[in-house]
Amino acid sequence: MPELPEVESVRRSLSHLVVGLRVARATLARPDMLSGQDAAPAAEALLQGRTITRIDRHGKNLALIASDNRALGVHLGMTGRLSVLPAPLNPPLAPHTHACWSLAHPRSGVPAASMTFQDPRRFGGMVAYATHEAVGQAWAQLGPDALETTPEILAAQLAGTRRAIKAALLDQRVIAGVGNIYADEALFRAGVAPMHPSDRLRRGSVGLIAQKVVEVLREAIDAGGSSVRDYLDAAGQPGSYARSHAVYGRAGEPCLRCGRTLLSCLVSQRTTVWCRSCQR
Ligand SMILES: [Zn+2]
Q1: Which of 2, 120, 142, 169 has the least C-beta neighbours within 10 A?
Q2: d(CA 90, CA 107)
Q3: In the chain, what are the domain boundaries?
Q4: In CATH, what number does 4-139 get?
Q5: DSSP assigned state of 273
Q6: What is the spatial distance between Cα 242 and Cα 246, in angstroms, rounded to a whole number?
Q7: C-alpha 262 to ligand 1 mean position (Å)
Q8: What is the 279 CA–ligand 1 centroid distance (Å)?
Q9: What letter does residue 83 receive in the DSSP assignment?
Q10: What is the Å distance from ligand 1's center to 200 Cα?
Q11: Does this chain's domain 4-139 share its CATH topology with 146-274?
């Protein structure tokens, strides 16, 4: 599942490829992949007739902001992918293409690119917003963006929760953007066991977790994210961070720090990999 670094890599590649282009035509193949339509026709909800001025991100959520302030939210879910192709699309479209856009240069009207949204598992989706302020209101239901995590913010967000620290980090209302990969990696770096109750963490440990969450996310963004299964950015490029994973996907292999065998357990129904001697 794409987490913050992968979604940020999509945002950056998408910004490079589509900002400044006008949506000449938008088509929705699966109406159930679009919600929040506020009576606007699907093509309008998909920003037809508008120029894309900016791509915003909060946690794992993206929003395409249009010239008239309308916006389209996109969540990639588990297998969602936004792809930009340099040429006009020719049928047949790739399987599981739920929406497509023909993009043109705004002044000349000359076709510039096509964009598609594919999502085989359909845990992702799109949300139509009448204004970009409405996007902000929807995103305010989530916790702060994980890249902005500070020891003070994390301590405040964890106040009163007895849940395992990993379960809290995965909760998008606590901080937005961390998923299974980066929760395991950050907790390994912080030396904190994933099942440690959040309310029994020392202040110093909370501070270290906050610092390591940001550190691991920044490194992963610099590497273009982690391509574990099938993640690609909007230009079709994979990320290279998977080869830097210290624990995720390495259960049964030796800990890179102490050499003991990494263990696997379930926290919040998610496979969790950790080192019993390096994480307390
Ligand atoms: Zn170890």
Answers
A1: 120
A2: 24
A3: 4-139, 146-274
A4: 3.20.190.10
A5: E
A6: 9
A7: 7
A8: 7
A9: E
A10: 22
A11: no
Q: Do 42 and 120 touch, CB atoms closer than 8 A?
A: no
pLDDT, tens digit, 9 for 90 and up, residues 113-152: 999 999 999 999 999 999 999 999 999 999 999 999 999 9
Q: What is the 3-state secondary structure (H, E, C) of 87-133?
A: CCCCCCCCCCEEEEEEEECCCCCCEEEEEEEECCCCCCEEEEECCHH
Q: What is the pLDDT of residue 247?
A: 98
| Residue 51, pLDDT above cutoff 90 | yes
The rounded Å distance from CA 61 to ligand 1 centre is 34
What is the pTM for the complete model shown? 0.96
d(CA 188, ligand 1 centre) in Å: 8
Residues 6+ apart with CB under 8 A from 218: 147
Topology (CATH level 3) of domain 146-274: Helicase, Ruva Protein; domain 3 (1.10.8)
The catalytic residues are 2-3, 60, 270
Measured in angstroms, how far is the CA atom of residue 252 from the centroid of ligand 1? Answer: 12
What type of residue sits at position 152?
E
What dihedral angle (degrees, nearest 10) is formed by the CA atoms of 29, 1, 72, 90? -40
Distance CA 23, CA 46 (A): 9
